[in-house]
Structure formats: structure tokens, C-alpha cells
Design a protein that fits this description.
heterodimer; A: mainly alpha; MetI-like fold; 2 domains; 11 helices; globular; B: mainly alpha; two-stranded antiparallel sheet; 2 strands; about 75% helix; flat
Amino acid sequence: MHRLTSLRWILAFYTALFIIFLYGPFVVMAILSFQQGPEGGPQFPIIEWSTFWYKHVLGFAPPSRIAPLPIGEALTRSLTLAFATMVVSTLLGTLTAQAFRTRFKGSGVVFYLVVLGMMVPGVLLGLGMALVADQFGIQRTWWGTAFVLHVVYTYPFAFLVMLAIFNRFDRSIEEASWALGVPPGRTFRKVTFPMIFPGVLSAMLFALTLSYDEFPRTLFTGGNQVTMPIAIYGTFAVEIHPNLFAFGVLTTLFSFALLVVYGTLMSLSIRRARARVSGIQEDVT
Amino acid sequence: MSLSETAGAKMADGGTEAPKQAFWVRNGHFLLLAPGVVWMILFLVIPLIMMVYVSFWTQTTFAIKSDLTTKSWVTFFASETYFGALLRTLRIWLTVLFFTLLIGYPTALFIGQFVRNKTVQTILLVACVIPFWTSFLIRVLAWRPMLGKEGAINIVLQKIGIISEPIEVLLFTELSVIIGMVQIYVVFMVGPIAFMLARIDESLIEAARDLGASAWTIFRKIIFPLSLPGVVVGAIFVSVMVLGEFATAAALSGRKVNLLGNIIVTQVGSLKWAFAAVVGVILTVVMAIVITTLLRVVNLRREL
């Protein structure tokens, strides 16, 4: 579409506006996180620039009437939960996608059964699980009832990612390995897994972020011990303070760090794969 | 496919363990499927069935009894408040869906069709995703200082001189809920559409141009139809999330706008399980109709 230069510029300008729209609240939030504390509220104007709310989030601020965010416990719970969810849903997703590589009867039913997990709104699933727990006398906990729902939610994403990876996967390499007498388990470890590793990493990242931020499912099934999103939701009913915004900025920075790690692992894996291929070529020639 | 696998397996064992190996090849996928399917039946299907079942139970003040009744259903449809919430949910859902498509499509068009450099494409998409790393709830709350009477938008508009008095309808109205939802969910529309647009074969468009098609015709006859699966996937994402929403409405409307989700949360809070289940079933039905209609337009499995 090189002839449409004017349209191209209009759309580029539009996209710039769009990105400003996406970042607007975030920028406002970042500015307000430097509000003076503890009297300054989460609104303009900025009374005085300060880092009070950051200290407040991290627990360095002198005690005041504003309760600190339960960073220690709730955050630990959230991260533990996200990590467990990531492991289980990636494992399930990979297994199921592996099964989908051969055609079998009823694959459509299984496909939609799995995909249903990401299509059912969280509030419904949370309600359903709470009802089941209530009727069967199961204690509602973040590591029990909430955890299984987190997997129900993230496993379809892992499955779809892995399915897409396997669809673009050259089967003959595996077959060559089998033909050479390598048992299936070893083939998976040595041939299949290195090739699908980038996909596994993406699936893990998906599951981790979705679970970490998950909240309607956890609301009904998490029990008394709150995770981070539930703790934030708890502040909805009462007054909100800029400490939430400071926390938001900090978590975003943390996610940035996580993405850098992901990017590094990804490019390392690609480079290693390339090195291996060229190594094989050298061996052959 | 399976033939060559069997052959490979047989070769691997030199024939001694052939029956066992063949069994694995033939039935292996059931073993692979079992954990996932069992998990989904236990923790997805059963809770949903339970919800339908409980919606017919008898509600007493603090408990539910398993005596079947349609009382909760009658209450829902007889009540102005609750039935109104259903209509409001549908209205807000359609509005948000319309605006996410309207606002998202041009961006997706730019990223998918006009940016031919893969790296720039990725950078733009990542730029769209970065705001998602802030907790959803905090992003919702960040709209309050944006929209408020002394919020960022009013300050900026007054500075430029477009308005003299602050606009008050921006916060704690249905409008603020819609603005918030559109901003939060629009990326789910952009992503799939941009993905489909980037996959369009360049030569198709060149051929059309060589045959004298105008830019508009190319868009109407080639680009838009080929991006349709992306639109549908985006619409599914947005619909699923908006229909089940309650946090945005609670935070940005000052509890004035009640969606079905809000009613569920309130009812569960006051232990009205049966009634919450009724609202849940209604939401499920709405959801099912929306998704099956959308899936009729596009086959999700084939598009992967």
C-alpha cells in the first residue's frame, strides 16, 4: 500500500493518539503517585511532590491512619498462586496440545470444553465453585478452590499457544528420531521440547500474568486470606489513596523486569537453536 | 500420519515390544487428554451445572434448601431493578463492543497493513500491551483522577479553553463506565485484528490494484473480509469480559450503574445464593447466545 501515503500518515497519527489514550490513565496515575502524604488524596492538584506513598507501600513510612497495603502476605500469596497456576496449566496445556497432534474422534468436543474455560466469565465460575464448596462443605481457600479455577482460566490459553506451536512444527524431525530408535520419552526431551520451548515460555508467561491479576474468580473462592487483587478490591468500598498508584507503578516496573528476563531467555533459546543447527551442519560437512 | 508413527515405533523396538508400543500410539492421546478433561469437568462443568441446579432451590433468609421452586426466577423477571440490570448490561456491552471495534480497527489496520517492518510491528503491539502489567483494578481506579470534576481531562480542556466550566457528567455515570471499559478492553480487539491483517498475502492486494480496484474497494472486498476472523475473536474476548464485568461499574459509577455482575456480587455478599445463581444462569445464557452466534461467523479451530 505504498501509494496511499496520506492515508498512511493519517493512520500513523491516529495510532499515536490511540497509544496516548491507552497510556493516559497510567501517566496520570504515575504523576499522582508522587502526591504529598499522608493528607494528599488521589486527585489533582499535586500539593507537593514527595515519595511518601512509595515509602508507605514498602513499609518505611511512619504509621498513619491509612492502613498499609498487605504487601507481605497478600503479595506472597498472589505470587505463589500465580507460580503454581503457571506450572500446572502449562503442563496440562502441553499435554492436551500434544494429544491434538493426532486426529481423534470427539476432538471438537474436547477443544471447546477446554476453550470454554477462558470464555466463561470469572464471576460465573467463581459463583459456581462457591456453590459447590458451600454444598459439599469444602473450605474455600486461595490454594484450593481459587487455585483450581485459576488453572481452569489459564490452561486454555496455554493450550491454544501450544496448539499454534505444534501446528507449525515439523513432524518429520520427530519421526526421524523415532526411526533412529530413540524412545518417545527421550525424543520428547531431546528433540520436541527444545523446539517447542519458546511456545512453552509464552504459555507460562500468559498463565503467570493472568493468574497474578485474576480477581473475579478469587473473590468468591479465595476465602479469608486475601490475594493482592482482592486486597485492592477491598479498598474500592472505602476511600482510595495514592499508595495504590505507587503500588501500580512499582508492579509495572517489576513486570518490565520480568519481560526483559523473558526476552533474554527467548533470544538465548533462539540463538542456541541456531548455534546447534550450524554445529550440526559443520559436523555433516 | 498415524501409520508412519506406528511404523516408526515398531522399528524402534525391533518388533519385540511392538504390541505395547502400538497400544501407546493408538491410545496415547487419551492418556494425554485425561488430566485436562478431568480437570475441566470437575472444576468447570460441575460448578456450572451446580449453578443451574441451585437457581431452582428455595431461598430462606440465610440459607438455601434443596426444595425445587421457580420463585427466584419469578423475582428476577418481575423486578424492575433486576430486569433493568439485564437490559443495562446488554446496552453497555453493545456500546463498548461498538466503540472498541471503531477505535481499535484503524490502529490494527495501521499495525497490520501499513507497517511492513516486523520489528516495528512487534514494538507497537508490545506498546499496546504494556499498560496491562498494571493491575486491572488499579487501572480502573486510575480513571477516577482522569474523569473527575477536578480531573486531568477537565483541567486540560479548561487550560486549552475549550470549556469554561468543568464537565461533571464524566465521572460516576454510565458514560464513565463505558469510557473506562473501552480503554481497558480495546487492546483485545486490536491484537487479533492486527494479527489477521498482517497475515494477508501482499500479492492479493497488488493483484487487485493492478486490476484497477480503488483503495476503498480493496478494503471492502479483500482486507475487511480477511480480517473478519480477527474481528470475531476480538469481539469474543471483549464480550466475555464486558458481560461478566462488575469492578469497573462499581469503581467508576459510584455504585449507580448495576450490571448483572454487580448483582451477583451483592447477592453473594448477602448469602442469597439461589438468587445469585438465577442471575448467573441468565448471564450464562446471554453469553452462550453471543459466543455461538460469533463462532458461526468464523471457525476458531481452523484459524489457528
